[in-house]
Amino acid sequence: MAVELKDLTKSDENYSQWYNELVMKAGLAENSAVRGCMVIKPYGYAIWEKMQRALDDMFKATGHQNAYFPLFIPKSFFSREASHVEGFAKECAVVTHYRLKNDPEGKGVVVDPAAKLEEELIVRPTSETIIWNTYKNWIQSYRDLPILCNQWANVVRWEMRTRLFLRTAEFLWQEGHTAHATREEAIAEAEKMIRVYQEFAEQWMAVPVVVGHKSPNERFAGAEDTLTIEALMQDGKALQSGTSHFLGQNFAKAFDVQYVNKEGKQEYVWATSWGVSTRLMGALIMAHSDNNGLVLPPKLAPIQVVMVPIYKGPEQLQQIVERFEQIASELKKRGISVKIDDRDNVRSGFKFAEYELKGVPVRLAMGPRDMENGTIELARRDTLTKETVSQQGLEDLIEQLMTEIQENIFQKALNYRNSMITKVDSWEEFQQVLEEKGGFLSAHWDGTPETEQAIKEATKATIRCIPVDAEDEEGVCVFSGKPSHRRVLFAKSY
Amino acid sequence: MAVELKDLTKSDENYSQWYNELVMKAGLAENSAVRGCMVIKPYGYAIWEKMQRALDDMFKATGHQNAYFPLFIPKSFFSREASHVEGFAKECAVVTHYRLKNDPEGKGVVVDPAAKLEEELIVRPTSETIIWNTYKNWIQSYRDLPILCNQWANVVRWEMRTRLFLRTAEFLWQEGHTAHATREEAIAEAEKMIRVYQEFAEQWMAVPVVVGHKSPNERFAGAEDTLTIEALMQDGKALQSGTSHFLGQNFAKAFDVQYVNKEGKQEYVWATSWGVSTRLMGALIMAHSDNNGLVLPPKLAPIQVVMVPIYKGPEQLQQIVERFEQIASELKKRGISVKIDDRDNVRSGFKFAEYELKGVPVRLAMGPRDMENGTIELARRDTLTKETVSQQGLEDLIEQLMTEIQENIFQKALNYRNSMITKVDSWEEFQQVLEEKGGFLSAHWDGTPETEQAIKEATKATIRCIPVDAEDEEGVCVFSGKPSHRRVLFAKSY
Lengths: 494, 494
Prior knowledge:
- By secondary structure, chain A is α+β, with helices and mostly antiparallel strands.
- In chain A, helix 2 (42-61) crosses helix 6 (183-203).
- Chain A starts with 14 loop residues before the first helix and ends with a strand.
- Strand 5 (94-97) of chain A pairs antiparallel with strand 5 of chain B.
């Protein structure tokens, strides 16, 4: 499949189309034959695997263990937690039968009407219910607590309007589900995990995020508090990138999960849940990429350094590739992943464009003159700059560059994000900044769901979060004029 | 949850019950609220993760990449490959609706009849069809080949009689799906991957396997040849532990996947698929465990060394734990995983039994006298022996023991397996050995499906495989008396 870079839509012409084309042309994902379900292609999956590995290590370092719970949830489980069923579970894949049979009227297969399930099964949209139904049997005494489980799984939410990675019917995610003896411990867990997500987003994805609480309207169905990390995309829209919920005793009560405390008294267990998904791929792509394609932070790049020989004839090719192999071997010893592209059926200019499209952080090119001079051409994807450097000390330089590029990508995103947080103090200003500039609007809000709803209907902007580090500041709500004690962040969002 | 070791059924009294209890009591898995679906508990999942990591590394070392394809498959896809639909796809979870709604007649939710899918979706029982439908768009020219993809996923086959790990409605697996330009290359790939499985089973699981071809009756639906690894459990029954299929051009023709070869001519693509699943957990458990519980090979043990303090009072406990921590730190540097069990609410005898149940390869115990003498008690799970050794050089000893135990467990299983391959040359002998001894029967077979079927009906034994290294040997079929050119392996199986 030839890469057709020339066809990539410019991001300032049509951001949405640019994104879709980029995801497909860079070989990250594509739509499948099943409505709303995507195929994650090898290059995209390789990035997701790096994300998984880093997150999984962080989960384990904070004391969590992985487990696996069923794909299917009995329909009746959803009704057990009242607000959960209200906020969820409506747009779901429903399994009603368990057998096909040959079509008696012709070829092919039909659903066997005799194989109807007594109770329908729902393909999990999230697993609180089935997990708390299981925890009931795991928890008797305070000695069984805390339970700190995570699962890597696929989930299904029947979205009507889907976009690759950002909103798909099936997606991959992890969901942590923890059980605690006290309210304080559960709240501390929810806070710990949102900080883990923040660290991952900033240190690995190079995406700065705002940590905050969701307003009651935007809370997870069944949660008493939802913490979120909110990232800003280059089109000025926010992307909720991970959430961590303090669930109180809601699920424990719904599934009757009690424990005997140290004093011998029965108490309901306290819960959290927290998750990030393949949506992070969308955040990664939209936070850094440009009109030439992806820009990947080195820590998540499947290929960190690509080497392209510039040659005439097979003899030159062989010599250059041999030298590349020496360099590659040194780089691999330092844990740097390398690809040597010795294809002879495409031109080097085509290869350059392809690896720019794929976001490879560093590109090395070497021709016969470089071989003579002991030099090499080094190009950086993040800055799109190139220079000729000595082969001497090249490995040190590249190792150092990995850190430098990682930091530069983060800093660039941080500067942009910071420039896109605008304090607004009137409704006119709110509307004007939202339309003309976009980004986060830091504004006073009266704290009522009615005002939040009215603002959303008027402008499509929602409260992304009440930042955890929001300062106390007296003011008046931009919409209602009623008193407010701190600013919250509004934005249009994905 | 207290471990109730005393209740573990003896394996020679009731092997099946022993297995079920062991899986649950050792904290590996349990049945869920959803018929046929299991919960894989943290300790079981930790073993599965180690299996996954080792296999994944082997797949990548042989040039494969991971990708992810949809959970759902349109019903019509199954009809495209005739023998595939015949052999498969009948006992499946069928999604017919995509929405629930509040029950108009009361509380709870019901399926919304207005949200019926135009075409039903099947929860994948295996992914050949959706993947080959996708490959059609990835493959145009010989330059796009080979495609070497693997996916880690959950699949669902609506089994009526389920057993934890061995046969569950939902299970976890990996499925490799490769596309090749030539028949020879595809056959070589199928052979390469069955050897990867063999290496994994023997080197990591310490389970010896026979590599062979399935008879046509037992082939995968849609395959031209199925290679298998067959392991022997301690009750004398065989367990198919992994398969690798040469699919010919069957799926390429069903989904019209053609490529332009070097001569500019259109040709159909050649295919393989190969998979292992959480069934391997069953093989691991049944190959090595005993009446005291699991016996885990060190390479797959989540905890390789457990340390139990023998103490009176908190002061002794603290001193011993401090010394343990020094040893643990040294062991961790060598990549050995360690747990110090300093619980003060259970006796050390209880702990000993618990870690035997959980199959921890090495147990260290230390009391005040050991502290004085510079000694430590070291117990091996595989031999159930213990000895007092010097703390001096302990880390070297343990590192060496990891290798020794791994090899010992394999050797023991190999000796048993070899002792359970019996050459039989008459029908009387066949029946007698099968009933009285069990294991593999190496016997002549006339090569017809009719004879295979008749033997199965008479004895429940099936042809497990035609070993790849079966020698040419003239003989007569044990059942029909017709001529045969080599022996095949029969056994009762899981």
